[in-house]
Amino acid sequence: MERQYLLKPDRPDPKDYKYASYSSQEIKPIDLRPYDFPEILDQGYLGSCTAFAISALKQFKERNESQINAYFYLSQLYLYYKEREIEGTIDFDSGASIRDGLKVLQQVGCCTTSYFPYVESNYKNKPSIEADENAKEHKINSYSRLFTALQLKQALSEKNPVVMGVEIFQSFESFEVASTGVVPFPDRNKEYSLGYHAVLAMGWKIINGEEYIICRNSWSKQWGDKGYFYLPMSYIGRLVSDMWVTN
Questions:
Q1: 42-141 — its CATH code?
Q2: Nearest residue to 218 (alpha-carbon basis) of 91, 101, 52, 54
Q3: Least trusted range by pLDDT, from 11-15, 66-70, 116-120, 215-219
Q4: Are 84 and 62 within 8 A, CB to CB?
Q5: Exposed (0-12), middle (13-18) or buried (19+): which is 102, by Cβ within 10 Å?
Q6: Where is the Peptidase C1A papain C-terminal domain (predicted)?
Q7: What contacts 80, CB < 8 A, 6 or more positions away?
Q8: How far apart are CA 177 and CA 75, in angstroms?
Q9: What's the mean per-residue pLDDT of the chain?
Q10: pLDDT value at position 55?
Q11: Taking the C-alpha atoms of 225, 241, 170 and 75 in order, what is their torsion angle to the nearest 10 degrees?
C-alpha cells in the first residue's frame, strides 16, 4: 500500500497557548504504553494521520483520567471530515494540520465509531446530526504548543502524550524500520523527504546510548514494534514541525 504523508506543518502563532516548563531536575525515561490504550488501527490510504493521533490522545485521557466507561473508539473519519471542513477541503483527501484537529476537538468534539465508522471510501460523506450530538460528549478544554525536547520529556513525565508532526524520509519506509521500529536520522545526501506525518509520542527511552522518542503510528500493530516506532530525539528542532498537548 502506498502511504500518504499529508500532515500540514503548522507555524507558531503568537496567540498559541505555550506549554509551561518548570522542572530543572533530570527527567527520567518513561513509557506510557502499559497504560490503558485503544488498539492501534490502520489509517489505510487516506491522509488522516492527524485524526488518528489526536483521537488516540483523547481516548488515552478518557480511559485513564475519567470515571466514564471509555471502551470504545472515537471516530477518526469524523475528526478528519471536520478538520477538512474547517480548512475548506471536504471534497479532497487533503490532509490537515494538528492545530485544526485540536480546534475541532475543542469546539465540536468527536463522536464514536458507532455513529461514523472508519470506511475509507466514505471520507466525503457528511456526518449525521446524531453523530454531531454524540461528539459533544468528547471534547477538550484547551491545547498548548511545545517547542523543545525538555518540554516533551516533561509532558510525558506528567503522563501527557504529545501529538507531533514529523518530516518523513525514504528510510522510514525501509524493511528495517518496518521490522524493528528504529528510525535512523536521515541522510539528506542519499534520500529525500516524502512529506509530513502526525504521530503520538508515548514516552522516550535510551537505545545504544542515544535518546529516542516512543511514537505510536497508525499503520496497524503489524508494522514496526507492534505499531510503535522509535524516533531520534535529535529530530526536535530540525525535523519536527510542531508538538501539542491537551489540557
A1: 3.90.70.10
A2: 52
A3: 66-70
A4: no
A5: buried
A6: 27-238
A7: 46, 48, 50, 51, 96, 123
A8: 28
A9: 94
A10: 97
A11: 50
The residues pairing with 229 across neighbouring beta strands, listed in sequence order, are 215
Grid cell listed for 213? 522518542
Q: What top-level class would CATH report for the domain 142-247?
A: alpha beta
The full DSSP string for the chain is -----B-------TTSPBPPP---SPPPPEE-TTS--PPP-B-TTS--HHHHHHHHHHHHHHHHH-SS---S-B-HHHHHHHHHHHHT-TTS-----HHHHHHHHHHT---BTTTS---GGGTTSPPPHHHHHHHTTS--S-EEEE-SHHHHHHHHHTT--EEEEEEEEGGGGSHHHHHH-BPPPP-TTT--EEEEEEEEEEEEEEETTEEEEEEE-SB-TTSTBTTEEEEEGGGTTTTEEEEEEE-
State how far the Cα of 51 lies from the Cα of 151, in Å rounded to an integer.
23
Take residue 6 and report the three cell numbers written for it: 499529508
- Using the predicted structure, report yes or no on whether residue 36 has a pLDDT greater than 80: no
Domain with CATH 3.90.70.10 in the chain: 42-141, 142-247
Question: Taking the chain, what is the end-to-end CA distance rounded to the nearest angstrom?
Answer: 36
Give the closest residue to 136 by CA, choosing from 111, 104, 113. 111
Cα–Cα distance, 171 to 186 (Å, whole number): 7
User: How far is the C-alpha of 174 from the C-alpha of 179, rounded, in Å?
Assistant: 9
Query: The whole model's pTM is what?
Result: 0.96
